[in-house]
Structures are given as structure tokens and as C-alpha cells.
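Notes from the pairing session

We agreed to fold both candidates in a single pass and log them together. This is the raw record for the first candidate, unedited. Please don't reformat it; downstream parsing expects exactly this layout.

Candidate A
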Amino acid sequence: MSYLEVKGQREILCRIPYDSDLLLALKDLARRLDIKTGVFMLLGALKNATLLYYVQSEKKYTKITLDFPLELVSGFGNIAMMNDDLMVHAHVVLADKEGRCYGGHLAEGSKVFSCEAYIKELSPTVYRRYDQLTGLNLFDI
């Protein structure tokens, strides 16, 4: 197990714009605020969603497309640097009108109906690096 003690910095509340791509909006906000490392929580609703599921045995993602309105029941994620670029990593739980839940890794293509975000900036800066064992880009700590 590896770990790194971090310290909290700024805390931001944000309303993500209607019809924006949720993942890209989060990345844009982090860039504008110069947040290189952080954690966030999300609540709201999506017009549609694109999720990814990681197939461990194949070390690749499969896409899940949900083309209907969904409640954003829970969303959590983190912000880190990778190869001199910002990486926003989010997982969400979504519910349809019958209360059925869907979950996974948030991908580009998820359109916002409404979304409120809480972001906490952390220091020091954390980087991600490719991990051969899992095939994932994990914290380099």
C-alpha cells in the first residue's frame, strides 16, 4: 500500500451549465481555477449519459450509452495530473424514472440537465502513471 498525506486548500461550489458535457465542464473548471489535484462530489440530473465499464481480464473499457433522462444520484471523483495534462476521473450512480440504477466511469458525452458540484483542492500535486499490472492510470504515490 502506498499513501501520501495531503492538505486541503480551496473549496469551491459550482453549478455546471445546462446542456454542457459533464466531464469536459469539470475539466474546464479545474483548468480555469488552476486546480491540479483535488476531489469532488456531484448531484443533479443528466439528459443522457455515457459510462465506461472496465473489463479487468481484457484491460479495456466498454462503453455504456444511456439515451434517456437520469437522476445523478451520486458522483465522486478526483483530479490529478498525467503527462503534463489534467485528468478528471469520476464515477457516477444514475437512476431512471423507475428507480433502476446504473453506474460506472463517467465518459465524455454525458449531457447536463442540472448539476451541482463541490470541489476541494488538495496539495501537493498528485500525478498518474500507467500501471502494467492493472492496465490503468493510477496515482503515482
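Candidate B (folded immediately after A)
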Amino acid sequence: MYNLYWGDLHNHCSISYGHGTVEQALMRARQQLDFCSITGHAFWPDMPTDRDVYAEIIDYHHEGFDTLARNWNRLIELQRRGTDEGNFIAFPSYEWHSLKYGDHNVYTATPDLPLQDAPDLPALRKVVAETNGIAIPHHIGYRAGYRGINWDEYREDVSPFVEIFSLHGCSLSENAPYRMLHDMGPRDWNSTAEAGWERGFRFGIAGGTDHHAAYPGSHGDGRMGVFAKELTRESIWEAFLARRVFAATGDRIDARLFLNDAWIGDSVSAPSKRRFKATVHGSNLLDKVELLRNGEVVQRFFPERVEPNPAGHRYRLRLTWGWGRNTIPVEWSGRFTIDQGMIVSTETCFSGQAVVAPKGSSVTEVLDEVDLPHELLNVTERSCEWRSITQGNRTMRHETTQAISLEVDAPLSAKVTVEVNGQRYEHSLEELLRKGRSHFLRGWLTEAICIGPLIPIEECSVEAEWTDTAHSDTAHSNVDVYRLQAAQHNGQWAWLSPIWAER
């Protein structure tokens, strides 16, 4: 009934403050997304006024707001021209900051959006209503009053979903991975999505990069999946309003949960037996799939280890490159070939420099000059070629590696060859089965590439069914909130919007 589309509704560039151009952002988005929004920083009605403490913050925000105002019509026009219905859609948006109410991004289903300020959130809701738009809260997990969400002011009709994952971290729950490490502070339970559901609100969840260097969908920094009938503004917007959305970190984890015939985002009457079906198809080795009821894990599912048919089997194989000195840019020219079988599909795992503040750096300045820092050039049944520019990981917790995930169908005796920057590396699939092999291009402390691991496709997938009965272990005893989350061993996650089961 619905197709899965991938997008990023929260990405910044120099159109307000940040790095890179709108044109670059749209080119990069089209590489690995179906839709996006280039968001301009626009307003902050309750910005701090103490210049002794916040002068730098005040000045660069006002400069960014002024830049956006001067270029707003241009931003609207570029995103309009960047849209190709059926292939790629760009939605207009702007960001409204608030200490008291939390930050919100304003969207509309049409190609046009007036740039309008509001003194507070009730007034912003009126502005949004004039365009039949929505206002989506983001980095909600910060403490209320410190730019986290204020659930006392939340309205489901204006905000059908909230952004729970980005470069800021994960705002899903107290025990969610990816702590919030920005100088804006730690995660606060009262501002999490679980706290909102516990209060009885019905909203979906999504991911978005909040990236400030013109790279929508930057891998690992946050994306959203949407289940829609087709890739049109109207259909994607209908899915937004229906809450058929979910959050992912980067890998295209196709995760689905059904309660009887209900999709995620639905509210259904289910007073007795509830039949659940979960399907998860990942891009790497799955760790676990969890079904939660009212915030508690009630069932865990795991992939089954298989012995692949040596004569021919389907696998996921990842090529990852980067490392080396973080001050030295490296240009990559690579080619992968397999001598038997075929490449079924390719998934790019490209990311931009992880910038969440408007200050410049030598890293972003180098990559700003390149429209497409990473590009998949050519794919045939037995080969693929790519080019890339990397700099070493910025810290030991801040990776800047790039990758391509391949699905291949081949015998274990097949040989894969990777030719990169004049070096040649060869392995049989059997050598790579569940084992990655690394190679340094120019010796110790230089750039490197990892080939593998090779994972049987079954170990990247879970299909399960489960039956539950109505429960009353929640303050809202007439409804149970079910949701699904999936984790891969490589640290990639997907978190689905809930299904509400009414008794």
C-alpha cells in the first residue's frame, strides 16, 4: 500500500549561518535522499540580551537572521526549482528558536512559505495555521526553558511528529543511545518523547541531521523514513499528518510494525487480542529488534545465524574508507569488482563534516570548495566506481569515514578486488565472511580502507509475529502505546513512531 521514502527536513547552510551553498545542499541531498528541506535560521523572540555573557551568540544569530531575510526569496526559488515530482522533493522551511518553548521548524506542503515571526508559541501556531503548515520541535530532550520541548505547550494538530535524533543526540527516552553532548546541556527525562507519550500525547518521531555544512542526510547524523503512496508533495505531506514516519541514524533500515492491519502512526480499537507483525531489513548485521509497550520492552527478536550456500548466496558487504591525519585531505579514486555473481544493489553512506555550530574551520573550508565531496560514479552487475575526499577522524568519538554498502549475490569462491589510489587489494568472499580486512594505503598513520565484513542477508533481517492482550499498566488506562526499535551491530538504529491501541 505504501512505499518507503527517505528524507532530511532539517539541514542548514550559509543561507543563514553555516557552511556551503543551497545549490550544494540540494545536489548532495539528491545523491541519497528522496526529499529534504534546506532550513534557514530565522527568529528568536526570547534570545538572551546579556551581552557580557552572550554577545557572540547574539551577534552571529542576528547576522544569520539578516542573511536569511535578504535571501529568503532566493531560497524558496532554488528549492522550487530543485523539486522534480516523482524523483525528488524540496520543502521550504525556517527555524524559530525559543528558550521557553523549544525550537521549532515551520513547514508547508506548498512550494511557497511566508517568512513570519511570532512573539511566542501560541502566536506561531496562528502563523502556521494561515499556511496549513506544521511546526516540528527538534532536539526536544534539552531541559524545558533551555530550548528543550515544553510539553505543557504542545499541540498535536500543529506538531504531528517531533525530531528525536540529530547531531545533538537522541531525545527518545532516558536509556536511549547517543547522549546529548553539545554545550546546550544533557538530556532531561521530562523533555523526552517517552515523557510526552506518558502524558497521553499522540505524535510520531523522526530524525534530521541539524547539519550546518550543506549535507542533507549526512550519514550517521539523522534521517527520517516516510511511508507514502508516491513521491509527490501531496502524498509525502499526507504521511506527515498521518504520523507514518520514523527516525533513523543513517543506514537505510527498513523497519515496519503492524498491529492487525494498522500502520505506525495509527490509533486503532483493539480491546482484546492484538496481532503484531514486525519486519526489519537492515544494511548490516542486526543486533536486536525490540517491541515496546508503554515504554517497556515486551519482546525481543534476533536474526538467526545461517550457514550460507557456498555455491551462491545473498550478502551485505561494506567498503569503508578514511582515517589518517585529520589535517590532511585525501582524494580517493576507487573501483570494486567481483569476478562471479552480481551486485544486486548499492547504498551510499556518505556524510558531510559534522558541523552543528556556525564557526568556521579548516576542515569545512576545504570541503566547501567541492560540490560533491563523495560520489558513486558508475555501477554495473560486477563493478562500481567512486571518488571521495576525506580527512581523518576529528576525535576518537567523531568519525568522518565514508562507506558504500553493497548487496551481492555470489558464491563464496568469488574474488573481490578493490583498486584505490594505485593500490590493489584482493580477497575471496569466504575470507570476508563475518570478517573485515583493513589495508593502509601508505603505511602507518595514513589513510586506510576496510573491506567487509560480508554478512549473509538473513542475518541483517528479522521477520516476527507476536500476540498481545489489552493492558492497563499506564496512567492512560484506555490506551496502550506500542513501538518498535531496531539496532545493528555497527551502531546504526531505527526508531518507529508508535501505534496506539485503544481498549
